[in-house]
Predict the structure.
Amino acid sequence: MDALDRFVRRATLWLALLGFAGLLLLAVMTSLDALLRSAFSAPLHGVNDVSAVVMAVVIASCIPANLAQRRNIAVEVLGGVAGPRTHRILTLFAGLVVLAFFGVMAWKFIPYAEGMYLSGRRTWVLAWPVWPWWAAAALFLVFAAAVQALNVLQDVIALKGAFAERPAAVPQTRPQPEGDA
């Protein structure tokens, strides 16, 4: 289980790095377009096309790393007050909600990408087919759901371990009778 966890988390980091490289390339293209447009009245044609298709992929490529590192927003007041077992139960519940959310999102992206393929939709200027980009985003969201499923499995194991632990024994002290000294 640990080897699978390490492999998946490393893969999520590489995928996020790939996404950030795409974002950097898009930023360079946008900056170059603005510079050429203002200095020479010669814009780079198709920058909006690239931006339109790359952004979904960039965002979807970073989600698995976010989930793998458990960088979700969490409110842990109740779990902190109620004790470690309750905290683990609430963590598991939150993990299941996140899994359901990304599972539904991935489930909806797949037919959307298929619809882009069937319609033959293309970008305006460069005439690139749009479907491969949405298919990549859908694939990354499926991977994100799998990463979250692994997180939920780890939460179940941690919760099982919490219930297997016996609470610390509280020393029993008997009140001493008044006359014994």
